[in-house]
Design brief:
InterPro entries: H-NOX_domain_sf, Heme_NO-bd, NO_sig/Golgi_transp_ligand-bd. GO terms for molecular function: heme binding. Pfam families: HNOB. It contains eight helices and four strands; from the N terminus they run αααααααββαββ. The protein is α+β, with helices and mostly antiparallel strands. The structure holds protoporphyrin IX containing FE.
């Protein structure tokens, strides 16, 4: 997993709970890099999962809820680092359709070892979009948070349902995004 993801998690925790809380999480996860992350390097996926578990414990919450909240925060961080992607799509649905063929494709092309999911998006009508998600990391709740973060960025109100899920033994996750009238 890209260092940028760890750096963003660190910023989120330090902003909300202070530097001591982040230091305690690093102690708990005990990563080989000792908690020093370079945004452009790759770090073990297992460390990201371990941090999520440790944050969930700290907040007395579930791993899925923590991952989803982090996804919202991560959207803003990614969008600040690479604003050209959202700028290229005037609507949320257009943006979500560009993830695989544009955004993740460019990342994959520039770094063959990137840990990216397979995302297939289908727009069924003006209000309904179906996203199929698959990844050995099973970070579908991160995808949920990223979608909600993107919806906020576009000023669009959406409802999300997570009908099929890798965590429940389905072969992929299905996220239905319903655009509500504002
Ligand atoms: C709503 C929009 C997006 C969704 C649903 C999405 C989904 C995801 C998910 C779920 C992951 C975690 C890896 C996995 O599940 O296997 C991921 C990784 C990543 N995504 Fe996206 N993404 C979105 C937008 C973006 C944008 C705008 C960027 C901008 C650069 C981006 C760049 C990345 C990067 C750098 C990683 C980490 C790659 C690595 O660790 O090697 N994504 N994405």
């Amino acid at each position: 997993m890209k260092g940028a993801v760890f750096v963003t998690l660190k910023t989120m925790i330090e902003e909300s709970h202070g530097p001591t809380a982040w230091a305690a999480l690093v102690d708990k996860v005990a990563p080989e890099c000792e908690g020093v992350y370079d945004a452009n390097e790759n770090y073990p996926d297992a460390d990201a999962i371990a941090y999520i578990g440790a944050v969930a414990e700290l907040l007395n919450s579930s791993a899925s809820a923590v991952t989803e909240i982090f996804g919202r925060y991560l959207f803003d961080a990614l969008n600040s680092m690479s604003p050209q992607y959202a700028a290229a799509s005037p609507t949320l649905f257009g943006f979500l359709q560009s993830i695989e063929p544009l955004i993740h494709r460019e990342i994959r092309n520039s770094n063959k070892s990137s840990s990216l999911p397979v995302i297939v998006v289908k727009v069924t009508d003006e209000q309904h979009l179906l996203m199929r998600y698959n990844s050995p990391r099973k970070l579908c709740f991160l995808a949920e948070g990223l979608i909600r973060g993107a919806a906020k960025h576009y000023g669009e109100t959406v409802e999300l349902s997570h009908d099929k899920c890798l965590h429940r033994g389905d072969i992929c996750c299905e996220l239905n995004v319903i655009k509500l009238a504002t």
